[in-house]
Amino acid sequence: MGVIVALAAIGSSLLAGVYASFAMIVMPALRRRGPAEASATMVEINARAERGPFIVLFLAVTAVAAVLAVSALARQSAGGAIVAGAALGSSAITVAANVPANRRLAREGEAFWPTYQARWNRWNAVRAVVAAVAPVAAVVGIRAL
After folding, report:
1. What's the pLDDT tens digit per position in 53-100?
2. Where are the domains of the chain?
């Protein structure tokens, strides 16, 4: 189970870094643009995310976390369950909040931008923090695993 925990924690930390980079770099830069340019750029970023290395990482972390969740429950490992829960939680937030907002932005464009960026930023911050819990839990709870 140690390898699965490590993979879930490392993958989740990579995702947390991507999400934090958006919060600290990408979204502030887009806010300096007009709604038309910002929304068009974000739509392009989202399209690339769904076809590039990000989606591979996202799906791999989600799959590893699901395997870890089953293993942790079978072994009654609280630490493993926390790591899995955090990794799966950030994936769930992405699928339930960020992706639908991305789809709506692609349909509605600049008219939706003010609402989009406020809502998307909130959920992005939440998923970044949740994703960051997995590696912290792995380090703190390593003896319990």
Report:
1. 999 999 999 999 999 999 999 999 888 899 999 999 999 999 999 999
2. 2-144
